[in-house]
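Quick one:
INPUT:
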């Protein structure tokens, strides 16, 4: 007996839409990362991009628990000594609500080329309720 390994031609990619309004950020990110990676399918293979496309709408209305709204910060470094930049999550939600969900999902994907490619290609995040992917007929996923 041999272990079954799917080929790229055998994989099918579906589209899903998730409404982030009132959903806790971590729970949303873990479910979206699982779908993007393809772990919900019986044909999952860790070396293939077998996941589905996910459209997240209402990113500005995502919920954070506890005191994360005051305490959580995003870190980046400019490359110069002492030039560390910290952006509070409250400011990020106002200015770029899409990045909050993208960073949370990226943290749950494997680090490497496959993880970066799947995030860039398969995750579409929009701040409001409208999105331009109606032609793909995305199936709704209820996370509430």
């Amino acid at each position: 007996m041999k272990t079954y390994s799917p080929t790229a031609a055998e994989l099918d990619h579906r589209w899903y839409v998730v409404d982030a309004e009132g959903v806790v950020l971590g729970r949303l990110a873990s479910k979206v990362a699982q779908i993007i990676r393809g772990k919900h399918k019986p044909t999952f293979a860790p070396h293939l991009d077998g996941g589905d496309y996910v459209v997240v709408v209402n990113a500005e209305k995502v919920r954070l628990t506890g005191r994360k709204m005051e305490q959580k910060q995003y870190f980046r470094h400019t490359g110069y000594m002492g030039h560390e930049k910290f952006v509070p999550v409250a400011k990020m939600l106002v200015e770029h609500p899409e990045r909050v969900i993208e960073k949370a999902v990226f943290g749950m994907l494997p680090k490497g080329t496959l993880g970066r490619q799947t995030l860039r290609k398969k995750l579409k995040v929009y701040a409001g309720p409208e999105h331009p992917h109606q032609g793909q007929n995305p199936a709704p996923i209820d996370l509430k």
